[in-house]
Amino acid sequence: MEAPKLLLLILLIPCDLFIGKSLGDGVTHEEAKELRDEVREMFYHAFNGYMNHAFPRDELRPLSCGGEDTLGGYALTLIDSLDTLALLGDRERFTASVEWIGKNLRFDINKTVSIFETTIRILGELQGMRIPSYDDELLHLAEDLARRMLPAFDTPTGIPFGSVNLLHGVDENESKITSTAGGGTLTLEFGILSRLTNDPIFEQVAKNAVRGLWARRSKINLVGAHIDVFSGEWTQKDAGIGTSIDSFYEYLLKAYLLFGDEEYLFIFQEAYKAAMKYLFNDPWYVEVNMNSAALVWPLFNSLQAFWPGLQVLAGDIEPAIRTHAAFFSVWRRYGFTPEGFNLATLSVQQGQKSYPLRPELIESTYWLYKATRDPRYLDAGREILASLQYGARCTCGYCHISDVEFHKQEDHMESFFLAETVKYLWLLFDLAAGPDNLVENGPYKYIFSTEGHLLPATPQISLVREHCSYFGAYCRNSNLRLKTHSPESAQTNSSGSQTRHADSSFLSRSSYQSSSPVYGLKGLCPGLTYEQRFGISFMSPVDSSSEDENSSQRETTEVQSHSVVLNSNPDPEVPLSGPHNDHDNDPAHVPQEESPSSKQKR
């Protein structure tokens, strides 16, 4: 079929193709509470199944009630579930989990792991959790893990290898090809680690990777799917918002929201405008050649479903509503979203019939309900929950669906089901029932990582460049010294890759180093509590003098009103923008919200 005719066909596909005029009778307040409780039970059915039958292996085999190691063999599902336990208020299991991880988790193992998956699933969850008697054990583990991944960044482009051995570094036979999402979805976790450890190297390498990718964009500001990390040549020039690229876009905006770095916002604005101009065929998205914008693939990829949620954060609500309706129509047709849905044949793409319990559509449903309070999104959430309960629930957990047309179950449950899928469903119904959770009522605003982990916009993370003008900010501290990694002091070996810890001297070759943030020149003000630094604690309140209480109250008020931190909007209704007819409109407006997740997956 000729490309112009195919594009015309796509444009003519209505977003309500499979949707009736009404999405349902509407979810009442009481029903929202019942649905929230049902999602809680869903979590514990799967979590208990993992703990009873799979722990400490990585993931659960829910049909056979066994376990399997899929990433590093270090209790992946338990780690990935930590902040879901915190969100549900389960102090007992949260405390036990943190204690076990602190005592038993080690990364000095001869395992080759994915940089992307290890960063989003493990590294992002080991920062900022506290229990009584906690002494930064998880933060120390996170720093150790990140240092073991640093050798992957020692490339001419600054874009990291896709994998690294945690004991020996990068193997000499490691592939030089990596995905755009794999290199561009590290900024949040690595940036936070730099700010918590006062060591800039982590944020530097992650930012240089983004710059390395963006510097190789096409003349029309599109990026491809896979790139050679040594030559900088694109090996797959298909541009899209789904597989292998998705969270590159996501982390550009979220890095700006969390860190206030306008360079990320500028790149996001340019990348977003190009995506809406060349990839958007209202209400669907297609894949095109990154240089010519010629149509390559008229396919709805299930990973695209994160995009409406990202558009909510970017303030572009109208196209988000239309695209979500189109994506949800596919779910309603099959009961799940297949990995691929062909927009030309309006059928499941051959070889892409599975649904591995992905969270992206649920994530966007949550963000659109949060932005609009439109009850249609509660109806959508109720239908998604029913599909999971009747089609995916199995003996010890929830199963992958290997064929969405026949609802055939497969004996696997990825950790992100508990980290994201269940979490976003619970947040959706909790928001409707009257929210009672740390995301809505906590001391800070939270950004969601692409794995659904909660990243608090605390002063230590979001205001690192601020002057000490109020209690709890960052003060000059003469006892702190700037940590540096000079070429002269770095130890290398003959291969430059087989090293247990990173040779950071390669940073000296980067022209970007001078503009990276500086740490160690500012220290924590006296009296800054752990809760103020990290935004989460399960410790009992400690009595303090009225003077301390007043100081703490002043600090909290001033931090929340600072322009760099995302401010809450007392009006739950976010006004919708007008019809999105001009693809070149600047999406600079960022709503006062937190943030969602999506993945390169897997």
TrEMBL record:
UniProt-annotated stretches for the region Disordered: 485-507, 540-602
Entry's EC annotation: 3.2.1.-
Source species, domain of life: Eukaryota
Record GO cellular component, one term: endoplasmic reticulum
Name listed for the protein in its UniProt record: alpha-1,2-Mannosidase
InterPro entries: 6hp_glycosidase-like_sf, EDEM1/2/3, Glyco_hydro_47, Seven-hairpin_glycosidases
Active site (catalytic residues): E117, D246, E339, E360
SUPFAM superfamilies, alphabetized: Seven-hairpin glycosidases (SSF48225)
Gene3D superfamilies: 1.50.10.10
Intracellular or extracellular location(s): Endoplasmic reticulum
Ranges annotated as biased composition (Polar residues): 485-499, 558-570
Cofactor(s) required, per the database record: Ca(2+)
Keywords of this entry: Calcium, Endoplasmic reticulum, Glycoprotein, Glycosidase, Hydrolase, Metal-binding, Signal
PANTHER family: ER DEGRADATION-ENHANCING ALPHA-MANNOSIDASE-LIKE PROTEIN 2
Signal peptide annotation: 1-24
Binding positions (Ca(2+)): T450
Family from the record: Belongs to the glycosyl hydrolase 47 family.
A UniProt-annotated Pfam family: Glyco_hydro_47
Organism of origin: Solanum stoloniferum
GO molecular function annotations of the record: alpha-mannosidase activity
